[in-house]
Amino acid sequence: MLENIQFANPHFFWLLVLLPVAALWYFFKRKEETASLKISSIKGFSTSSLLAKMKPALFVLRLFALAAIITALARPQTEDISSRTKTTKGIDIVMAIDVSSSMLARDLKPNRLSALKDVASDFIRNRPNDRIGLVVYAGESFTQTPITSDKTIVLNALRDITYGQLDDGTAIGMGLATSVNRLKESKAKSKIIILLTDGENNAGFIEPQTAAELAVEFGIKTYTIGLGTNGNALSPIAYNPDGTFRYGMRQVEIDEKLLEEIADVTGGQYFRANNNNKLEAIYEEINKLEKTEVEEFKYYKYEEKFRSFVLLAGILLLVEWLLRNTLFRSFI
């Protein structure tokens, strides 16, 4: 209980310094005023002498009363805090994800697409105050889920992303244009696209530069991520008779110049992820760069506790007055 008590006027505790000063003053004053009488026997004076020795207890009661009054002046109180948060600057985010066959390459574990989904899931969970949408693209593009504040919907949609939803290819311009289309009507103060690819633009009827110009027109910042190791990676190269992929070593070719251009013209930033840890670090960096402003209101409710100390002081002074005017009256 005591650890929850605070004092509104703690400077009043400096008055406690006066109490030992008053005690010393009383001690020397009483010593000067006390007369001594030598007698041969104190028989018959035992009760009176005991009361005389207890007389300083009256002054002690007064000191305790003063201490209680000083504590009351310091205003002991308990504090109950309630808070309410208000998002003052929301961010709308679209994550554009390459789902071409090369995303099944195994230079990231277990493969590029699965590694991306794991990291993107954590990113989504760390953006509780923002709206997020998903766009997938390969040879063409479509909206996996429109921007929404319901993270359960977004996470379920992300989990359901697989290879084979679209014709194969890498239509970076289409993926970016679809993402811009999702955000162009947004009223959010900040709108961003996170575009990830592991290849070069080789499909679609919208050029990436044209899509980037559209992003600029609608005030949409784009972060681009090139995914894949340096050199060769174990990638799908053909189909087996049973329809599964045959894997072999293939040169990793990412159009980094294009991705840098898109990021620069839209005010974003380009990142290269060549392993799982780097991919995770990139999403953490974007998470830090794009902060949502949250305004927090705190309400303080104080419960005053000084009344009990005032009551205690009153009781002590009353007891001191009664004793002074009854038992100790003859010694005053």
Q: Helix count?
A: 10
Report the mean per-residue pLDDT as an integer: 85
Largest sheet: spatial strand order: 5-4-3-6-7-10
Indicate the percent of residues in helices. 25-40%
Q: Detail the poorly predicted runs.
A: none
| Separation, N- and C-terminal Cα atoms | 42 Å
Q: How many strands appear in the DSSP assignment?
A: 11
Determine Rg (CA atoms, Å): 40 Å
Assign an overall shape.
rod-shaped
Question: What's the order of the H and E elements?
Answer: EHHHEEHEEHHEHEEEHEHEH
Proportion of residues in β-strands: 25-35%
Give the helix/strand class. alpha/beta
Largest sheet geometry: 6 strands, mixed
Keywords: Cell membrane, Membrane, Transmembrane, Transmembrane helix
Protein name: VWA domain-containing protein
Pfam families: BatA, VWA
InterPro entries: Aerotolerance_reg_N, UPF0353/GerABKA_families, vWA_BatA_type, VWF_A, vWFA_dom_sf
